């Protein structure tokens, strides 16, 4: 009897070469590739609002902001991800050697979805915590106003700072405060998710 043969795993170099020719984005973890599915309107709107706010705030400084098309490598986890939005302030993330992916994010934002929420909160957050430069990891709920900012404290522990309706979200790593209403500007709420008046 023939047993199924294990599927050969991609090396990071194989993945990066293969990914160049793909029509869709694919994340990579320890030799396995995971296709990224399309996002809802609210997801894209929120990510766009944050990108614009970060870009306007950081313009002319040493930090740069990237949206969903730029990969972030977590080398210690043998992984490449496509965060919804992330900021890097490290000179090593500039120049031709960092053209296809970055490695030293200071701030990472993931807008949750039904299919990825558990992974974003669990295993992916564990991977991101391996980034030495990472100071904040942000999860945004696309169905109701709610932003969770996980911030690394001086002892290296991660502390949750939740923000809700009427509050101002603080992104301490880039010295920026944004009203939560601005994070959700132009989001078309479904009836079940409409915020209280």
Summarize the helices and strands and which ones pair or pack.
Blueprint: H1 12-19, E1 26-29, E2 32-35, H2 41-58, E3 64-67, E4 71-74, E5 79-81, E6 85-88, E7 101-102, E8 105-111, H3 117-121, H4 123-128, E9 136-140, E10 147-152, E11 158-163, E12 168-171, E13 176-179, H5 180-183
Parallel strand pairs: 4-7, 8-9
Antiparallel strand pairs: 1-2, 1-5, 3-6, 4-5, 6-8, 9-10, 10-11, 12-13
Structure description:
- The chain has one domain (39-188): tt1808, chain A, CATH 3.90.1570.10.
- The protein is 21% helix and 29% strand.
- It has 5 helices and 13 strands.
- The chain has a 6-stranded mixed sheet with strand order 3-6-8-9-10-11, with helices on one face. It has a 5-stranded mixed sheet with strand order 2-1-5-4-7, covered by helices on one side.
- 28% of the residues are buried.
- The mean pLDDT is 89.
- The CATH top-level class label: Alpha Beta
Please compute the radius of gyration using only Cα atoms: 18 Å
CATH topology-level name: tt1808, chain A
| Alpha-beta content class | alpha+beta
Helix content: 10-25%
Q: Using the alpha-carbon principal axes, give the shape.
A: globular
First-residue to last-residue Cα separation: 65 Å
Uncertain stretches: none
- Average predicted confidence as pLDDT: 89
Overall tally of structural domains: 1
> Can you count the helices?
5
CATH superfamily: tt1808, chain A
How can the largest sheet be summarized? Answer: 6 strands, mixed
* Strand runs, count: 13
Which architecture would the CATH scheme give at its second level? Alpha-Beta Complex
Query: Which strand order spans the largest sheet, edge to edge or round the barrel?
Result: 3-6-8-9-10-11
User: Helices and strands, in N-to-C order?
Assistant: HEEHEEEEEEHHEEEEEH
Q: Please indicate the percent range of residues in DSSP E strands (runs of 2 or more).
A: 25-35%
């Amino acid at each position: 009897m023939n047993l199924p043969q294990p599927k050969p795993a991609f090396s990071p170099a194989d993945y990066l070469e293969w990914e160049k020719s793909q029509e869709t984005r694919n994340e990579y973890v320890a030799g396995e590739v995971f296709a990224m599915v399309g996002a809802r309107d609210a997801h894209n709107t929120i990510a766009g609002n944050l990108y614009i706010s970060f870009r306007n705030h950081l313009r002319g400084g040493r930090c740069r902001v990237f949206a969903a098309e730029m990969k972030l490598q977590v080398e210690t986890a043998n992984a490449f991800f496509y965060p919804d939005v992330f900021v890097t302030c490290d000179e090593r993330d500039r120049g031709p050697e960092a053209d296809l992916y970055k490695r030293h994010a200071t701030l990472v934002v993931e807008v949750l979805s039904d299919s990825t929420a558990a992974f974003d909160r669990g295993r992916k957050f564990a991977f991101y915590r391996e980034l030495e430069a990472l100071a904040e990891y942000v999860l945004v709920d696309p169905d109701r106003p709610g932003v969770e900012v996980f911030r690394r404290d001086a002892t290296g522990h991660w502390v949750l700072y939740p923000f809700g309706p009427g509050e101002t979200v603080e992104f301490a790593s880039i010295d920026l405060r944004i009203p939560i209403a601005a994070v959700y500007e132009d989001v078309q709420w479904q009836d079940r998710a409409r915020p209280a008046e």
